[in-house]
Automatic annotation (TrEMBL):
It comes from the Bacteria. Binds 1 Mg(2+) ion. It comes from Novosphingobium resinovorum. The keyword DNA-binding does not apply. The active site is at residue 84. This is Alkaline phosphatase.
Length: 374
């Protein structure tokens, strides 16, 4: 064998080893679970002010430590500024739609819509466990976009109906949110009660999030706030029992119509993400984003003094409003600038640069090794 032939054989062997290692690495990096965190109205200004209000230093949230970051366009199909229905539909289905629509797209015929398959439905079809947790109403646009398909986000009766009549699998396994009174009113129109309807669909139904630990299928509906970390810990403990994996969507309201309340929710969700990162496995893709941004601005404040105290002092001044506050001000509602998408875990490296919010659907599919359906 000539020296040239020996060299070719060595290089060929090295290439084979490299390709083999790359292939095994790709398999090892495939996600088993996906946890999607939605900060509703949690745009960059809100994250910035929320972190400083909580910790009195910039870039102090756990979210800021997530290694892969991109900027997501949130415009809807028919408006530059999206609502939560269209914003979440894009993330969950990979399709832009009109404002107020939920996982449905216009067909072009007199207000008719067509359903679009959601990532949660992909997971259900493949036998994964699924969960939806929110501190807002369970039928509201963001949670509804994971499992329901309606042309009008306010159609709560139809959303509740689809909640218990899923198109794929047995539907969402763990449901936690507000809207208990709404559920009672909606099911009363069907001459039944939420207790009866959820029990018939195989759920344990109640107001205490602790029931999740003992029930593979549970619906916790409340009309009051609940402690987020115990609830999400119980949810993950339950979902993780499925050897095929799970998908969990956690939404936390970050609207800052009431600035201090909304920015407090930033801290709550950040603490949740930090805690979940400690208990979920390394085979879990963590993805945080917002469905849209909001008209909040950090307008002032002196370093070295607690920002919360400065804000309170400003609010106490006669005549000061949210729009004239010199520390944290709010002007209007939803806004159209890009929002952050931050990720860690298998498949997170695909989150980078500028992209449309529909890309996040592809990121989740790719992380699981699934192909999008036509």
């Amino acid at each position: 064998m000539t020296a040239f032939q020996k060299t070719r054989r060595i290089l060929a062997g090295a290439a084979a080893l490299l390709l083999s290692g790359t292939a095994s690495h790709a398999v090892a990096q495939e996600a088993r679970n996906v946890i999607l965190f939605i900060g509703d109205a949690g745009g960059l200004p809100t994250l910035n002010a929320g972190g400083i209000l909580a910790n009195d230093k910039p870039q102090s949230l756990f979210i800021h430590s997530m290694p892969y970051v991109g900027l997501s366009d949130t415009s809807s199909l028919n408006q530059w500024v999206t609502d939560s229905g269209a914003g979440m539909t894009a993330i969950m289905t990979g399709r832009k739609t009109n404002n107020a629509m939920v996982s449905a797209v216009p067909t072009g015929q007199a207000g008719a819509v067509a359903s679009v398959k959601t990532f949660l439905e992909y997971a259900e079809q493949r036998g994964l466990s699924t969960g939806v947790m929110t501190n807002m109403k369970i039928w509201d646009a963001t949670p509804a976009a994971t499992f329901a398909h309606v042309g009008a986000r306010k159609d709560k009766d139809e959303i509740f109906r689809q909640m218990l009549k899923p198109r794929f699998g047995d539907g969402v396994d763990i449901l936690i949110g507000k809207g208990r009174a709404d559920a009672a009113a909606s099911f009363a129109k069907q001459q039944t009660t939420p207790e009866q309807a959820f029990a018939a669909a195989g759920y344990r139904y109640g107001e205490d999030t602790a029931i999740v630990r003992d029930a593979a299928r549970a619906a916790v509906l409340r009309d009051a706030d609940f402690a987020p970390i115990p609830a999400v810990e119980a949810t993950i403990a339950q979902l993780a029992r499925n050897p095929k994996g799970y998908f969990l969507m956690v939404e936390w309201d970050m609207h800052t119509d009431d600035p201090k309340k909304g920015l407090g929710h930033v801290r709550e969700m950040d603490e949740m993400i930090r805690r979940i990162s400690q208990i979920a496995g390394k085979d879990t893709l963590f993805l945080f984003t917002a469905d849209h941004s909001f008209g909040l601005r950090m307008s002032g404040g002196t370093r070295g003094e607690p920002l919360a105290g400065q804000y309170d002092a400003e609010v106490a001044k006669p005549g000061v409003t949210d729009t004239t506050n010199d520390v944290i001000s709010v002007h209007g509602g939803h806004t159209g600038e890009e929002v952050i998408a931050a990720a860690s875990g298998p498949g997170a490296d695909k989150v980078h640069g500028f992209f449309p919010n529909t890309r996040l659907f592809d990121v989740m599919l790719s992380a699981m090794g699934w192909k999008p359906e036509k």
